[in-house]
Description:
Elements: H1 2-19, H2 29-40, E1 46-52, E2 55-64, H3 81-84, E3 91-99, H4 108-118, E4 124-129, H5 137-144, E5 148-153, E6 162-168
Parallel strand pairs: 3-4
Antiparallel strand pairs: 1-2, 2-3, 4-6, 5-6
Amino acid sequence: MPTVRQTVLDIHAEVRHQDFGLTGDFHTVARFDERLSAYASRPGWAAVLGYDAGEPVGFCFGMALAADTRWWRSMTEPVPEEVIWEDGRRTAALNEIVVRKRWRGTGTARRLHDTWLAGRTEERVTLLVDPAAGGGKVQAVYESWGYEKLGEQQPFPDSPRFAAMIRPLLTG
Length: 172
């Protein structure tokens, strides 16, 4: 597991810092590592790493939202309770999906996403995306995958204000 963890941290640093130039405390490798540790300790957490000829190309990971999740608490506008109630089996949260530059635009992100979802049993999946990422192109990609914006949230005082997106977990 230490090798896998280091691979995830290295890809994160390459993509977020070198490729996208993201700066500030929220985007440091140390802070990402703290979030990774917190996510990985939760029930239902799973990760998918992609490789091309032995070279790591990207990763995604997430977990089921627990009945006592704080996921929805940082919504900037109220959302109806029937939309955000959780029981530990209702919603999968995709925390991260990151693909190295050489493999972007090749369908790699979609394959990682779909592989991760293939092992899920929840009825729906949610994710957060920075609406400014790629000039809005990243959010548009998620919309093309069936996600709809539910609202906005800012889960950490120094994080971006994210679009909270959701879609049914398509099976079969």
